Hints:
- Helix content is 34%, strand content 25%.
- The chain contains 17 helices and 19 strands.
- A hairpin with a 5-residue loop joins strand 3 and strand 4.
- The longest helix is centred in the middle third of the chain and has 15 residues.
- The termini are far apart.
Amino acid sequence: MKRFAELLDRLAYEPARNNKLRLITEHLRSTPDPDRGWALAALTGALSFQHAKPGIIRTLIAERADPVLFDLSYDYVGDLSETVALMWPVPSEAIRSNRELMLSDVVDTLSTLGKAQLPGQIARWLDLLDETGRWALLKLLTGGLRVGVSARLAKTAAAALGNKDPQEIELIWPGLKPPYCDLFAWLEGRADKPVHRDPAPFRPAMLAHAVMDGDLSALAPENFMAEWKWDGIRVQAVADVDSEGQPQMRLYSRTGEDISGSFPDLVDALRLPGAIDGELLVVRDFPAHLRAYDLLVDGADDLREQPFATRRTRLEAFVARLKDPRVDLSPLIPFATWDELAAARAHPTGLDAEAIEGVMLKRRDAPYVPGRPKGLWWKWKRDPLLIDAVLMYAQRGHGKRSSFYSDYTFGVWTTGAGGDELVPVGKAYFGFTDEELIEIDRFVRRHTIERFGPVREVVHEAHQGLVLEVAFEGLQRSTRHKSGIAMRFPRINRLRWDKPPGEADRLETLEAMLSSRVAAES
């Protein structure tokens, strides 16, 4: 655990990407199997422990520290693992061990230990470790490392160990299992490249870059094909036969999680060998519907290195052969200029138009590449809806934001029994700059009127408060909110220091937006 704890500690304080890569690669080079494999699994999010929940950790610290002191400390620190690591009492007599606690010891124990024995074992480990070790252990248990390392970055660091292309790691990753001894043997030249033997494997997904101001002017429309961007769940539908000739059909999430059991009716529709990239939608007569927009495998042919235009032609033929109403094609959008495409984006028409959230642009000659390669795929979402809302509550963030109030609940005006009152309609924790975060945090601290643990209620009156311009993608009915309305993907668009709270929007405005959408759908 000591090496792993030191790695996490250094990663948490290192802002530079290249330095993070160097730290991870050096750790993988100097740490023996299987510990380095378990470290890679933790960094890529491939580790989870069924019974290890934050509630156990809270109970353990409550038995050893004053609960009021813990609440105050947690409110200040903002991170459960760090708070407990700092507050955990050191045993009066030092606990000695003949050998260092290894990361593999922790993983092996957690994988076999029953739920009833878990609290006692965690407490013994916390007694044994130092402050940094306790912090790393608790991060490992809760699954939220928050050290600024993505799964892609960790895989890139592993690739550097053997001077390999990170794309090679991405392609074989779904067939690998922690602690990745076969992967490291290949990277170090001690064995052949691992072979994926799953008859219906997941292929790492290709992602798109968002269209920003000025991007389209540098692109030639004739080099691209366009299709609708659907407001559903990205999935990959795969079918083939195993070594005994038995059909294997699976449905994967965009991250490779097997979700076949949740959609058995849709899985039954995958009767031809192949791999479809598409969107899971709930439309019309079927509880689950697959809208296909790419074909990665057709029978025995791997199409990922083929141009998108070729794959699209193969996809159209594949869906026609499949001939199942639960699987259909995502239609292409004809256009010759960016202005024509912009007009279509602003006013989508046709079947299921309510499920459209923008357009996708794909280069005609683009291969299917894992990750987010620049310039091949672009997503151009419809302009968001905007309202002015009033900040009502603020909560401390986590990780590097643990010292700031960065999670904001906001509301709009409505008529109550005693006159106009604010009702919450959403919560947002991104969209603002670091400088704006400091400004909002300062406002929260200076205008707090009530405290509820890590949450502060701020002044929100007609003539005093902070107005936030909130951007969001849509509205829906909600029984969880007093307002009866919930926002989709709300974020802070800008701060309206110039606007008094009394001029913020009203619930009637959101009701009108929602009614307009419902009318358009009908």
